[in-house]
Amino acid sequence: MSAGTSSCTTDPEGTLDDRPHHTLTEPASDAACRVLRLLTMRAQFADTVSRAEREHLSYRGFFAELLMAECEDRDRRRSERRIRAASFPRSKWLSDFDYSASPTPALVNNLAACEWVRKGEPLCLVGDSGTGKTHLLIGLGSAAAMAGFRVRYALAARLVNELVEAADEKQLTKTIARYGRVDLLCIDELGYLELDRFRSPAVQSPLVHADDGVVMNISDAHVKVHFRMEVDEDGWPPTSIESLWALDLGDGTVRLDNTPWFVRGVASGDVVRVDIDDDGLRWAGETVQASENCTIRLIVLKDGGSTAARQTVLETFHRLGTTGEGIEQFRMVALDIPPDADIQRIRKLLEHGDEKGWWHWEEGCVTAAWRAGAGTEDD
Asked: Domain 87-217 adopts which CATH fold?
């Protein structure tokens, strides 16, 4: 073909006889692409002409190459805009995901097809610290954005604060409607959130219940248990009530199922007696069976307690046998230390980090084995 002109020597249907024939020079094509906003065609025109001449493409083949390049690039730009609009804190891709401690590639590939998003089904990502929940959350959210879905990422604490402020300003309906326009809401970092004090169902409905994942539906056996606490003269803890998830054992007791952020004297796995008030709220009483787990809490100082700093702390202690959670609101990390963890090394690391100014730490709930490691075991 001669890619330098667009003149047509034959017109079997007679539709072009009276139209002027144009010479398709590079300046002319450049100007036409500018007017029509065909940015990719404009950028690739000269290269495509050269390739068409080398490979002897037909006019249709030449035009198809330009059209497909324009369409593919527009799809790419739309995907990039949707990913930017999602407000992910950093780029994470499923192709980079480490499957060593997490779901199988087949399961993740199935989720990446986004059929569950198309059907409006919830997805819950649950696992120990350092197993890649946030990576998987952002990776699946990015896959959904690239598939054409409208996606939004939010930290749980910020989302709750936004909803509460909107309710106070009588803008809650408008705020919920804004979130309702997205196809997928990715909620990350549910640490300590006292959702039950926001008794309006309208405030809680957008959250469902989330935990470092897309959306988490708590099973029917899970209940919220409330602990009353005394606030000191310095205003700590920042609330007088902490609410924890627990498994209802059906006999007036529950087994705590997450690490406490502020309440003292209890740990994940403890069995606690509860009293149910007239509003159906469960209030914690005595501990009837201790799990022998310890609760240790840190306020991370290094790098201002950033997400990366908190994650590094969690991963470091995880190697010593702990699990835990981090929360942005107070730059905190709460560690759950089972009895078979390396208590001596954990204590040394806590004290070393405190001396270095990496964190401050406190004992939320400790066992005889922990006190023995400190040389403070009661006789």
From this structure: Rossmann fold (3.40.50)
